Amino acid sequence: MAEILFDTRPKSRREDFFDRNKEIEELKDVILHKDFAAVLGIRRIGKTSLVKVTLNELPDHISLPINLGKIGNKKSYPMDVFSRIFIEGAVETIKKYTFAGKVSKIIANRLGIDPSDILELNWVKIGIKLREFNTQDVNEVIRALDSVSKDNKKYLVVFIDEVQNIKKVKDFDLGSFLHDIYEWCENTVVVVSGSFVGVAEEILNQVEEEKPFFGRKFFRIKLERFNEETSKEFLSEGFKEEGIKVDDKVIEDAVKHFDGIPGWLALFGRSYSYAVKHSHPVDIKVILKEAAKEVSKDFTTFLKTSNSPTRYAEIILALSRLGNKGNLSEIRDVVNSLFKENVESSRLNELLSTLVKYGFVIKVGRGKYALPTDLPTKIGLRHSAKIWIKKMS
Ligand SMILES: Nc1ncnc2c1ncn2[C@@H]1O[C@H](COP(=O)(O)OP(=O)(O)O)[C@@H](O)[C@H]1O
Ligand SMILES: [Mg+2]
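Output (structure tokens, whole complex):
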């Protein structure tokens, strides 16, 4: 099939997944040794794709997806929001692997409804009972999947996508959840992904230090941006697939603006090809804006759920004013003069390290900070921060 590199959904085949053979082999190695893996990297760098492609090449492994990327933008959620996502994943697994069919009975029994309601995801019936479904029940289902996998000479991979969102779920104990799998599920490994790298790391470190998990660790696989060369190759190859001739200048500009983030490159390639094929005018600014809007949404969500949104917004605007980078005292002075604040260095330091943990600001040296280098992120952050300040004044 042609026109694949510029598909804007996660990839699931190696041939559509550009230049990540090394990472695929690494993740495979971890899984085949029955260790746990954490795939870390900023948004749109290819984490979900990496896990999908890798699992696709492991026919003896069945997967149970728990997609926490579906969790919304509020500060906290009750357990049943998690249970719902979990049951959705479990049903996907059960439907894909017929030998796992009987697991639907276990879920149905626990909820006191028909297995067919589970398989059809009949939320009217499931909904009200969901509140009684707790971490132990989740683990019970995983144990059952582990055991049917074993009976069928298979292994189970539990894939928790965007694991940092687990922090938003009240009453869910990740440590004991993982511990139960370690203890009872011989045939199961866990793979997690995390976009807010610092936050995900914090969660993993915490889990690893907890007693029940002592001595175990997640093997970290870090996905980095493409370098200039690879970005260029990616675009050239993608346009070739689409059968479209593109000026070197266009490619060079795109490489500069999107700074090695595959998700942006794919979005750009797709929009550009579409416009050319259907004789629409192509405007790279419009594509940039579309991309920036996504970042803006992400950052607004972060602001809404944080305790000092206005401060964070001010820091972003101060950095932007400083030409996108500055040291602590420069940022402090700009924040204080521009917004008539009186923020001290120590407090600012704290706020900055949170922004770094989430990847909205990059630490470039001792006491030196910068906005991320790709244009959509810079524009999106600035836009969201401006709107926030305006709303607050
Ligand atoms: N190496 C790659 N080759 C081709 N497309 C990629 C690659 N990495 C990411 N993409 C594309 O970028 C987008 C984001 O990828 P995804 O796996 O969803 O990233 P993440 O899970 O890190 O946010 C998707 O459209 C995906 O197809
Ligand atoms: Mg993802």
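The domain at 228-290 is CATH 1.10.8 (Helicase, Ruva Protein; domain 3).
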